[in-house]
Amino acid sequence: MAAGEDRRRNALTEDKAVANSVNSTTQQTTEAAQVAIPDSVRQLIEKGPYAHLTTINEDGSPHVTVVWIGIDNGEFVCGHMAPTKKMANIRRDPRVALSILGEGMNPLGLKERLVVYGSARVVEGGAVDLLTRLAPAYLGPGVLFPPPPLRDKPGFVTRIRPERIDGIGPWSNRTY
């Protein structure tokens, strides 16, 4: 019995150490400095590229979804009309990454790509206005989105504070 109790006690101690490590990492990430969004990134986002938003599931695995993306007050924003798994993940752990394909090629023939690492938060309300603003870039001019049955719902806006911008393109210092 004593050996079994020791194993359980050690497992609990290890679980607490991992949890403390994750909490410490989350705190460090949320305290990282915000970086300015370069004009080259703003120009890409204005064209309406789909973004892959990666959040962290409860078990530590990645959760990837495709979202419409915009920029508001120095943050990346995406709208949601109903609660989602990505929102639950962000509320638990704000670390996220965005990945977006660019249009150009670098001198080596590699497709441009933008990767943004940051800290996210979910705000209730504002989704209709945001999605209405983004709809022309994603669905075409004159398209009304969200449709009338959803327009009276507040929805949610995910706000992503950029902490590091990387990838291949004019927004990166990479030479390859």
Task: Report on this structure.
A hairpin with a 2-residue loop joins strand 3 and strand 4. The protein contains four helices and seven strands, in the order H-H-E-E-E-E-H-E-E-H-E. Helices cover 33% and strands 34% of the residues. The model is unreliable at 7-30 (pLDDT under 50). Strands 2-1-5-6-7-4-3 form a seven-stranded antiparallel β-sheet. The chain is of the alpha+beta class and 176 residues long. The protein has two domains: 1-31; 34-168, Electron Transport, Fmn-binding Protein, Chain A (Pnp Oxidase, Chain A). The radius of gyration is 20 Å and the shape is globular. It has helices at 2-30, 39-46, 85-92, 127-139; strands spanning 51-56, 62-67, 70-72, 75-80, 95-105, 111-124, 156-168.
Describe this protein with a few key phrases.
7 strands; 2 domains; alpha+beta; 176 residues; seven-stranded antiparallel β-sheet; single chain; Pnp Oxidase, Chain A
The top-level CATH class of the largest domain is: Mainly Beta
Our count of helices gives 4
Q: Give start-end ranges of low-pLDDT stretches.
A: 7-30
Percent strand: 25-35%
Strand order of the largest sheet: 2-1-5-6-7-4-3
**Largest pleated sheet:** 7 strands, antiparallel
CATH names the topology of the largest domain as Pnp Oxidase, Chain A
Radius of gyration: 20 Å
Number of strands: 7
